[in-house]
Write a structure and sequence with these properties.
Layout lengths: L13 E7 L2 H10 L7 E7 L17 E8 L10 H18 L4 E3 L3 E4 L2 E13 L2 E12 L16 H5 L5 H22 L6 H7 L6 E4 L6 E8 L5 E4 L5 E4 L6 E3 L6
This protein binds biotin.
The site of biotin has 21 residues, from helix 1, strand 3, strand 6 and strand 7.
Length: 260
């Protein structure tokens, strides 16, 4: 992979493992050992892969991409959640370039095809005195699975299932890292998503559609208008008012199911 990778810092240092507990946990260990910004941790399988909201992420051997990037951004801690959206954009671009498949983003950061989930992203951060020590962005992509366990509930799909043939993982990782580095630099210069927002919204599966916002206090439904420059989802209410939904706080669903 190093041979085909055209980046300056993303994935310039790669730590590769056969089996690991979680690449996110390993990226934190690498940080503690002094690994540089952009270090990539990648594993063939994970015994304790972590998903969002404390869920487990099933990571069988050899069929997926299980990887984490260690980042040390000079940004305010509250901007770190936007990196997850940057990463989702990089995954869709990488998939388009390496596999020729058009995918979409389910706000804030799932990559979907045909309304089913191809990729999940888990960003974790550590701060000290209002400064970021590190951000770890973990990416799990269903690449070559031919079936999924029942607990995926019919919601998951792999690139192989979408395309009808297997996909070479190394090329895909290289294209994602290149896209990530380019998008990250646009984000870092603006310290928000103003330079990426239009491109993000063009990929948004929910755009112009009714969504259910699963706010535990007060769930509501409205039309998704796209993100603002902070990565929040703007939702038009039936009375014409606009509500701002902050990423990381609530989940959003389509009115018929997971994405649509
Ligand atoms: C989600 O729930 O949608 C997020 C899933 C993130 C999974 C990836 S796999 C690589 C990295 N290591 C982990 O333990 N989790 C992330």
């Amino acid at each position: 992979m190093e041979r085909q990778l055209k980046t300056r810092w993303a994935g310039r240092v790669i730590r590769q493992f056969e089996d690991i507990d979680s690449t996110n946990l390993e990226a934190v260990r690498q940080f503690k050992e002094g690994a540089p910004h952009g270090t990539l941790v990648i594993a063939e399988s994970q015994a304790a892969g972590k998903g969002r909201l404390g869920r487990a992420w099933i990571s069988p051997e050899g069929t997926g991409i299980w990887m984490s990037l260690l980042l040390k951004p000079a940004l305010a801690p509250w901007s770190a959640s936007m990196l997850t959206l940057v990463c989702a954009m990089a995954v869709t671009k990488g998939i388009r370039e390496a596999a020729g498949l058009e995918t979409q983003i389910k706000w804030p950061n799932d990559v979907v095809w045909n309304g089913r989930k191809l990729c999940g992203i888990l960003t974790e951060m550590s701060t000290r005195e209002q400064e970021i020590r590190y951000v770890v962005t973990g990416v799990g992509i269903n690449v070559n699975m031919t079936e999924f366990p029942e607990q995926a509930g019919g919601q998951a799909v792999s690139l192989r299932q979408a395309l009808g043939h297997p996909v070479e993982r190394e090329t895909l990782i290289a294209r994602i890292l290149e896209a990530f580095e380019a998008y990250y630099e646009v984000f870092e210069a603006a310290e928000d998503l103003s330079g990426l927002r239009d491109a993000y919204n063009r990929q948004l599966v929910n755009l112009g559609r009714q969504v259910k916002v699963l706010d535990p206090m007060e769930p509501f439904q409205g039309e998704a208008l796209g993100i603002d420059s902070q990565g929040n989802l703007l939702v038009k209410m039936p009375d014409g008012g606009i509500r701002t939904v902050r990423s990381g706080e609530v989940s959003v669903r389509g009115i018929y199911g997971y994405a649509l």
